[in-house]
């Protein structure tokens, strides 16, 4: 029987990251190290336990039977380690995170839960708004980090992945050629609204806003009710809607990128941020 207290924390972290992400490359990214270093740490843990924990082929990374048995104990070991460290801290650390409304998808609560599990001493405050508003708040120092659609005027930030847009409406939505397109959009400060209106103007398609403001959930409700068309990320669309761009001969929309801006500098916060970025990329890849 092995002694959990004598295990190397970094080696156990490497094993859990590989198990969660099913990839040595993504595990290395999440932990801020190299794939070679991850492999060395895993081998050290397997040698210590006397069992192979991960089965690896050119196409597949998965838990071995022994690895599946060990995984829950490994999580408990890391959680106890983090609680011990958190108990030594004089105060909880605050992490103010902004997430653009058009970026916010169903996976975000899971990502935040993983971030909290990674660092229980971190108090996470989340703000949802348009990319432009969040970027201004970040520049004023009100946010420690923000995940937004790339602003046309800025090329900084860490790219988390591409973002593609489409024209979405209910299958029964009617629009007659030559009549103004009924458009639902967020407030005028919303960059996605700008993408839509610029594309329509360039194509010479008349449009009118029949619903403006009220937040992304209200815009989704208006589109789902069949009142209008709106532009959404192809990853986050209202239930029961379809892409009607081709059907109504609407212009193609330019793609953008999702970027992460951050001012966090201490090692613990940067480590937590790497975990968030790696998890975000993982969920986007699985959704695609």
UniProtKB/TrEMBL annotation:
<dbReference type="GO" id="GO:0003677">
    <property type="term" value="F:DNA binding"/>
</dbReference>
<dbReference type="GO" id="GO:0003700">
    <property type="term" value="F:DNA-binding transcription factor activity"/>
</dbReference>
<dbReference type="InterPro" id="IPR036388">
    <property type="entry name" value="WH-like_DNA-bd_sf"/>
</dbReference>
<keyword id="KW-0805">Transcription regulation</keyword>
<keyword id="KW-0238">DNA-binding</keyword>
<keyword id="KW-0804">Transcription</keyword>
<dbReference type="InterPro" id="IPR036390">
    <property type="entry name" value="WH_DNA-bd_sf"/>
</dbReference>
<dbReference type="Pfam" id="PF00126">
    <property type="entry name" value="HTH_1"/>
</dbReference>
<dbReference type="InterPro" id="IPR005119">
    <property type="entry name" value="LysR_subst-bd"/>
</dbReference>
<protein>
    <submittedName>
        <fullName>LysR family transcriptional regulator</fullName>
    </submittedName>
</protein>
<comment type="similarity">
    <text>Belongs to the LysR transcriptional regulatory family.</text>
</comment>
<feature type="domain" description="HTH lysR-type">
    <location>
        <begin position="7"/>
        <end position="64"/>
    </location>
</feature>
<dbReference type="Pfam" id="PF03466">
    <property type="entry name" value="LysR_substrate"/>
</dbReference>
<dbReference type="InterPro" id="IPR050176">
    <property type="entry name" value="LTTR"/>
</dbReference>
<dbReference type="InterPro" id="IPR000847">
    <property type="entry name" value="LysR_HTH_N"/>
</dbReference>
């Amino acid at each position: 029987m092995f002694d959990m207290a004598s295990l190397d924390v970094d080696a156990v972290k490497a094993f859990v990251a590989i198990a969660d992400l099913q990839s040595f490359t993504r595990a290395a990214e999440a932990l801020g190290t190299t794939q070679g270093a991850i492999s060395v740490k895993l081998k050290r843990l397997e040698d210590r336990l006397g069992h192979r924990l991960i089965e690896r082929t050119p196409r597949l990374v998965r838990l071995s039977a022994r690895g599946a048995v060990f995984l829950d104990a490994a999580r408990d070991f890391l959680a106890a380690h983090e609680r011990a460290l958190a108990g030594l801290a004089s105060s909880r650390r605050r992490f103010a995170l902004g997430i653009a409304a058009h970026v916010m998808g169903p996976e975000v609560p899971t990502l935040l839960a993983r971030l909290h599990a990674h660092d229980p001493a971190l108090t996470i405050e989340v703000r949802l708004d348009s990319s432009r508003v969040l970027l201004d708040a970040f520049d004023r120092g009100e946010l420690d980090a923000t995940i937004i659609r790339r602003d046309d005027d800025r090329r900084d930030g860490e790219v988390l992945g591409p973002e593609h847009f489409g024209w979405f409406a209910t299958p029964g939505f009617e629009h007659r050629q030559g009549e103004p397109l009924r458009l639902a959009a967020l407030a005028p400060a919303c960059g996605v609204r700008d993408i839509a209106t610029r594309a329509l103007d360039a194509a010479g398609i008349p449009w009118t806003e029949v619903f403006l403001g009220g937040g992304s959930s209200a815009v989704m409700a208006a589109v789902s009710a069949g009142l209008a068309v709106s532009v959404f990320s192809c990853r986050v669309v209202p239930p029961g809607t379809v892409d009607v761009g081709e059907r109504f001969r609407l212009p193609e929309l330019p793609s953008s990128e999702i970027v992460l801006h951050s001012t966090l500098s201490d090692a613990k916060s940067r480590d937590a941020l790497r975990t968030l970025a790696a998890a975000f990329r993982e969920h986007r890849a699985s959704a695609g």
